[in-house]
Design brief:
Elements lengths: L1 H52 L15 H8 L2 H32 L6 H9 L6 H11 L6 H7 L16 H26 L3 H9 L4 H9 L4 H16 L3 H6 L11 H11 L3 H33 L1
Helix pairs in contact: 1-13, 2-13, 3-7, 3-10, 5-7, 7-10, 10-13, 12-13
Amino acid sequence: MDKSVNENTKSTLLKTGFFNRLETLLPKAVLFPTFAIAAIFIYGFIGWTTWISFTDSRLLPKYELAGFIQYITLFTKEPRWWVAVGNLFIFSILFISICIVIGLLLAIFLDQRIRGESFFRTIYLYPMALSFIVTGAAWRWILNPNLGLERLVQQLGFSEFTFRWLVDSHMAIYTIVIAAVWQSSGFVLALFLAGLRGIDPAIIKAAQVDGASLPRIYWRIIIPSLRPVFLSAVIILMHISIKSFDLVMVLTRGGPGYSTDMPATFMYAFSFNRGRLGFGAASAVIMFLAVMAIIIPYLYSELRGTRNER
C-alpha cells in the first residue's frame, strides 16, 4: 500500500511539474512569433535602413559602404531638406501649443460638471476616432477655393471674401496645422480631463474656504499639478508631428511645389519617386534619431519617477 501511495505521489508530482512547465512555456511559445516578426520587420528594417544610408544606393539597394556622403549631401547640398525642416519646426510649434491650449480649456470647461457633458465630450472626441487620411480629405474639400469655405461664404453674399491658403505657397503649411489641431485636440482634452478628475476635490474646497476664486485655483493650484500630463501631451504630439506624412500627402501632397514638405514626405519623395534610396534612407535615419531624442528622455524620466515612488 505504501508503494502504491508513493507511486501515486510521484505521478501527481510529475503531472504538477509538467503543467507548471507548460504554464511557463505556453505564453512564451504564443508570444514568440510576434516578437520574432517585430524583431525582423521593425528593428531589422531599422538596421537595414541605417546601413543603406551609408551607401550610394539609387533605384535599387547597394551594400558597399560609401561613408557619410548621403548625410553631407543632405545637410549641405539639398535646400529642399531645409524647407522640410523649417516646415516641421513651424508645424510642431503651432500644432503642439494650440492643441494644448484648446485641450486644456475644453477639459476645464467639461470639468465644471455641466449639463450635457457626455454630449459635448462625444463631439470633442469624435475627430480623434478618424484617421489623418480622412481628416486630410475632409479639410481639403473644406479649404478648396472652388468647393469649400470660400465658395460657401461667397454664395451667402460676401463676394469679395477669399480664403486661398491651400493654394498659397506661403500659407499652405498653416492649413496642415488647422487640420491637425482639429484632429488631435480631442486627444489632448482626454488627457487633461483625466488629470483634472484625478485631483483631490479636498484641495479645491480648502482653497475656496481660504477665499481663492475659481480662476485663481486653476492657475495657481490645479494647472501646476498637471505637469506630468503636460509632459505626456508634448511628447506624444511631438512624436506625431515628426512623423507627419498621411495628412500632408492627402491635404497638400507637399505643395504647392514643395512648400509644405515635411521630413517624412521628403524621405518618401526621394526614396521612391526620384530613385535615390540611400539619400532617402539618410533622411529617415535623421527622423528616427529625432524621435529617439524625444522618447528616450521621456522614458528615463518616467522610470526614474517610478523608482523614486518605490
